[in-house]
Write a structure and sequence with these properties.
mainly alpha; single chain; Arc Repressor Mutant, subunit A; Rna Polymerase Sigma Factor, Chain: A; elongated
């Protein structure tokens, strides 16, 4: 019996009232999901919180009858976890930082420890403007942009996490950049200080 068929049988059993089936599903995929979350936040406490929130959301969605992923349970749960990771970074009013690439981090490029008060205010405004522009992008473009620029993920990794082809991930990134340029122009934002 293949993985997807096993997962969809367990989901059906859970929906039919077998609480143990959900426990089996969680145990079966917990290491992979926990590892995915930890690879994004690098903090065990935050990972634990997001991991638990992920399964709370999974349970609520299943109980409301909103699960329709045609047996693709793990990619569906990973997408939920990914969205919760993004929400975590938004709540903490910062985007994830570049990993292993100190040469280019758009937010630290803007930073300078020797800024006077006026330049500090301008820097903070530019960061706020940039975050608000990214928030205006369609969700699928936001995800790709954040994963590529802030998490330094390859398009192959992005495609795997989001469940789309590499070409689709590339297209979403291209449209995200085009749309960001349009938003910068439309809002008369100057991204330098």
């Amino acid at each position: 019996m293949d993985q997807q068929l096993q997962d969809s049988c367990l989901v059906k059993r859970y929906l039919d009232g077998d609480e143990k089936a959900l426990e089996v599903l969680i145990n079966k995929h917990s290491q992979r999901i926990y590892g995915f979350i930890y690879s994004k936040v690098y903090d065990r406490d935050v990972t634990e919180d997001i991991f638990q929130d992920t399964f709370i959301k999974v349970i609520k969605t299943l109980k409301r009858g909103k699960y329709n992923e045609e047996g693709k349970f793990l990619p569906w749960v990973i997408r939920i976890a990914q969205n919760l990771v993004i929400d975590h970074f938004r709540r903490n009013s910062r985007m994830p930082k570049f990993e292993g690439n100190d040469e280019f981090n758009i937010l630290t490029v803007l930073g300078d420890p020797g800024l006077n008060a006026e330049k500090q205010i301008i820097k903070e405004q530019v960061e706020t403007d940039l975050k608000s522009l990214v928030a205006e992008l369609p969700q699928d473009q936001q995800e790709v942009l954040i994963m590529r620029l802030y998490k330094d993920m390859s398009f192959k990794e992005i495609a795997a996490v989001t469940g789309v082809s590499i070409n689709t991930a590339l297209g979403r990134m291209r449209y995200a950049i085009i749309n960001l340029r349009k938003l910068v122009k439309k809002n008369n934002i100057i991204l330098t200080n």
